């Protein structure tokens, strides 16, 4: 306590001393200091502290300071202080400069000192000289002194105490920057003795009116906690208070403090959960990362596992709702809460809120934020929604190699659990020769995890190029990867094995060795079939020098010596010769081989074995000697040998299970993804375990607490009754007419706003413009969905009302407050501003999400959410008891709305639902349904007949000739029907004709070899095709809008035929129906490079437009677009797999001249189409 | 979070240290040096190194290792991203981020680090805020400062720090109000031996230089926004507007910044602007090899392909190259084994005389011929063309009265463009 007293008294003494000793000249200078203490007189009192004072301090209690300094320095220093000139010292000049009156000299000195610190040089002996400048009025000098102080205070605790009062004064400064920086430095000084002062300062700053100071307070909390963990309880109180803060500035920092001080106090989050979710998008990026990570943990404790009932989930919530009385479900959820009991799984709206509010952050430029969201989705989202993160993660692969490294580690873990998610991005993981090795190996890992039956051929082809790389570590990893693919995918095992065997003749020894090791593992799975490979490897033993490989070969031969009875003894003979020169692992395997051979073929190998064992007996390595002794006893029958030797054969030649080649990333997902622990695959200190989902959801109403508090406030609000009265629709409508709602409130709060004028003007104008904008956005949404408009408006109004009430209330409260009236006024002003700004934002989000059309789901949610809010609001108004969560509405209404919106959207943003054709019967020569529809839709009657697709013109292509097919002839055509199982596929009609005299059975497709991205939907197997019969089937192929051929095998019960289907470009599209205006609009968007124009001369037969239309529609599956001019023909379609528009215009000119224009986003398609149409028209 | 930072140069000299909590001895870097030794190439140093008491997270950038010391669990990307931000700030302040500039501006560097982190947690990382707190050095200011004794340090709280738009300072004034946007697209591609595309995609960024007074609210719209498959934005962009309307609406930061980066949907076929015909072969006998490369323009939409450079990392056994280039110059560095052929412009008209590099390579005698042929890395540039076809439709400004000058530029470059041989 004595030290405390000294501490608290010292500044007073010091000031007194200053007052008495202060020189006149200094007083003048101080008057100029605008920053520190504009009111009081002498403030850099420290200059006047006599060296005697210091010496006293130092000698009394220096021992506490951490001594980076040798003890012999100290007396010299003190001498230096008293008479700088007399004793030449190391930093003499610096001290002199620091003591001078000129700021520029001080600055120069400080700069040199800081440079010393930066280089890691010890500058602690300058502490006394520096610390007295702590109150220097030059702000840069002061800042540098702070830097110095924070660095060395720990070592020189007592001297550091002298600076404390400066900071204490700084904490009361009217300038928020000074207050904040004072707190920052004060809390950074790691001197235990000032803990009470820090605590006081933090508490005060936590209720500061400036959010910036509050932020600094949040930062100070972990500092104090690490200095003195005993303060935890008090600090938690401060954290609780700051968590309730409404500003985005504070949110990130306080959650960081929460994570460091009390990460297990999840209960503190309840009340702030929704606020944090809503603020999230406006928090600065670093704060976002911390908040998202914390919320992930929170959600794991509070919500139910969304994947608990996967099958039901996939059917959509609507179905799940109606299917609620299924018995089966009841059983599964017997323990669940009453709400959950009725429905299988309904996501907590708060859970949904979190998912919805984090999703846009996937677009952040900050990789850490993207990763944080990705892990949140991975750990919390329903399976069906996790996919959205893949794209963003793949994007990060473009970033710095360190980022790639971390992302790839996480992707590798994800691919094990959710392979499908990254499959479409397979190619993004292809390896470049310029990638660093560690990246290459991680990519390889991901590729291996992604390998499955359909893509294995592409992946293996890719691996083949990797094997030729110059980077040997990478080559070794590639070979391992091939091995893993081979074990996981049975179909390619033989191919891989053959490939690896070829590698055995590689010139590089490492490659060979690695291959041997992998082959060994593969052979273990099915040794019977591969005795020739084993033989081949036996030959290799002469050349391979890598011990591991030699050992592997020997083991193989020993293990399967029965498959190679002739070679094995010979190998043993060779090895016996070289035994003494081998590495230890090889020797051990030689002994093994000898033992196994002895047991199976003792006649030939008895002597050899004994020779080897004798050699081993005198080996230098005791392992080998031991092994030899053990084996000799076991296999060579002597009279002494025990019971074991009977079982020798069983012991040695037991069936050994094949090794399972597993990814090193398996099961890593029990660590929270994106964490350091996950990366290291070991728990790092301070890692918070990701909790398991709870069996039943904890009470969700804990997050409603805010509402109750509001209620209390509102009940006191009797002075403004008109707000609480307006319950009828009409009233509210009237309220809405009061347009200048915002400007009013702005104006009101304007005059009371604080003296921090700078920030005011900025933020004021900003929020005003914000509200303007939101209004315009709202009007936009009004026009779009007129039906919903009124309701959403009301909700907004309600919210506004509520907010405003709150504001008023606070203001009145604030006025009543006795203490620090001026300041609290300011603070409420600031609050008001913040709130109104937030309100604007909320509103914006509501209106925007209403007009949002893309994700119907999130929209639905937002609706629910806002409804809930409004309900709770009205509840408060009626002074009801706390709100229970409104049950999610049956989504009937939503779906209706969805439909309506669909129709309101223009084609630009929404691809029209594929012509809803039911499974059309396969009719060979009928004109397609599509063109029928088209004919109906056209008003121009003259055109109608011509637009029907020329019925006879469907061209048949040969897939398999009668002769090559040994009697089986296969033809195909593009039927131009929509392929109903998958609208993104081109329907291909295939006709099989059996020209033989026998039945053909089991006609089906096998082993499609496709360009990546392409997909095939096979026709169902034709079981029997009788002689001289033919049958027609339809299959779907997604060509990915390319004219690459789809290769596959056509199999009968006896034969396999390699065939390929290559589509003409015109078949890659389906007709699209556009009006003339739409056509023009779309064409306008597809100018520039997307437009290809060509002049042509029409062929002799193209005399009128009927012929032209016929020709064009025969070439490409397009529909005609009505057109005012008869000199022009327009056609429209969209590509089947991506739905890009294809617009064709044929403009006829004089005589036979014409101009053909094709507009298409896909330039390649456009170019090819032009060529085809040109050809068709000029014939 | 971040405990300390050490800057280490390529050679292994530790030239700056900064501690945000208590001091950690620089001997902790020994673990780093060990890993550095083991890795060989600087690229291969693992970004996260585990030591008995600490974790070292490092990045390698501009020939400097930024090694940070961590004691407790933290998302590694958080640290990595922050370190890169530090490097970018240095670059922003001093024009380049190198050992010399950092040493020259040691004090400013130190002040910056002090502002960017508080107790190891990021505090101010927006360049606009930092520049108000600590003014970047320039010659004029240095002179004025030495004469008047004024400082580089701002005295008031940056306005951005308190507003909801921390990236923009208030009271910006320009006489010429202008906004420039550069649409830069890079083609990442892997072509195989026969010239077919194994993998190709387009990545683009829009860099902006906005010098507008007041608080302008800009809206940028595209002719064909559907081309954009995946986007990431500067924090100033309003996500919701993009989601619903496919326009980019934002209040810009002042000065230069990257507005967005995007990825063109993989379904769009990428036009490869050049065609490369190559033949590199090494002979078993005579320790020599032959090289023959021809580069010609392919799908260039009528634009000229410029700055074409072919870089080849030769196998170690290649001693020298005696080649003949019909266009441009070539250089072979026998130390790094890198062959660079600087072609320059590709003439689209003259289809007969395409640039060709031909000649022989001499190998180390006695050494076996290299297994693999080296792959070619190609660099190129096409002005006034965004290869994906992306077009900016219009830029509208709200919130301010004046008429700004608006400019859009398109450039296509080769990104990681590799031809396997």
Automatic annotation (TrEMBL), chain A:
Protein name as it appears in the record: AP-3 complex subunit beta-2 isoform X4
Phylogenetic lineage: Eukaryota, Metazoa, Chordata, Craniata, Vertebrata
This protein's encoding gene: ap3b2
TrEMBL record, chain B:
UniProt-annotated stretches for the region Disordered: 351-375
SUPFAM superfamilies hit by this protein: Second domain of Mu2 adaptin subunit (ap50) of ap2 adaptor, SNARE-like
Keyword check for Cell membrane: no
GO annotation terms (biological process): endocytosis; intracellular protein transport
Domain of life assignment: Eukaryota
Keywords: Cytoplasmic vesicle, Golgi apparatus, Membrane, Protein transport, Transport
InterPro entries found in the cross-reference section: Adaptor_comp_med_subunit, AP2_Mu_C_sf, AP_mu_sigma_su, Clathrin_mu, Clathrin_mu_CS, Longin-like_dom_sf, MHD
Record-annotated MHD domain positions: 176-420
Comp. bias regions, Polar residues: 351-365
Membrane topology: Peripheral membrane protein
Main location: Golgi
Subcellular location: Golgi apparatus; Cytoplasmic vesicle membrane
GO cellular component: clathrin adaptor complex; cytoplasmic vesicle; cytoplasmic vesicle membrane; Golgi apparatus
Family: Belongs to the adaptor complexes medium subunit family.
Its job: Part of the AP-3 complex, an adaptor-related complex which is not clathrin-associated. The complex is associated with the Golgi region as well as more peripheral structures. It facilitates the budding of vesicles from the Golgi membrane and may be directly involved in trafficking to lysosomes.
Name this polypeptide is given: AP-3 complex subunit mu-1
Gene: ap3m1
